[in-house]
Task: structure prediction
Amino acid sequence: MQEIFGIGLGVAVVLLLRLIVPLSIFRWPFWGTIVSAIVDALDVVLVDFIGMGSFAHYHNLDKILDLYYLSFAFIVSLRWEALARNTSIVLYIYRLIGSLLFEITGARILLFIFPNMFEMFFWFEAWRQRYKPKWKLTKKRLAITLLIMLIPKMIQEYILHFLELKPWADYLSKFVLPKNA
Result:
C-alpha cells in the first residue's frame, strides 16, 4: 500500500482536502462552508473508494477537523452585523461546550443536547448576505429562522448520534462511489 508520512494515500488525500478546502471560507463564506461540510460527510466514503488506508481512531480526528473548519466560519462571522455576529458567537460557543463535554464524558446525548446550530445558522446568514442582502435580519426573523432550523437539525442529530446511522455515506458508497467501480 502506498503511504505518505506513514499513513495510507487515501487517508492523506482526504486529510489534505479537509485541511485545504476550509481555507476557501475566507473568500467564499457560503460555498466554502458548504464544500467543507460535503468533504466532511464524504471523508470515510472517499478513503474507502480510493482504497488506500483506513481511518483507525478517526472519530477524534474528525471532531478536530470539524472544529478547524467551523473556526474559520466563526472568524468570518465576527465581521457580521451585531445581531448575526452575537448569534453566531452564542451558537459556536454552545456547540463547542457540547463537543468538549462529549470528548470528556463520551456521552453521545451531549451531541444531541448541544446540536450544531452554528453551522446551519452560518449557512443561512452567509447565504442571506450573498444572495438576499436587502432582507434584513431582525430579532423576530432570527427567532423564526432558528426555530425552523432546529427541527431538521434535531432529527439529523438523533439519526447521527442516537441511531448512529450514516445514511448518505451508505447510499454514496453503494450507488455513487462503489468500491469495486
Residues 3-176 form one domain. Residues 145 and 174 are 35 Å apart (CA to CA). The mean pLDDT is 85.
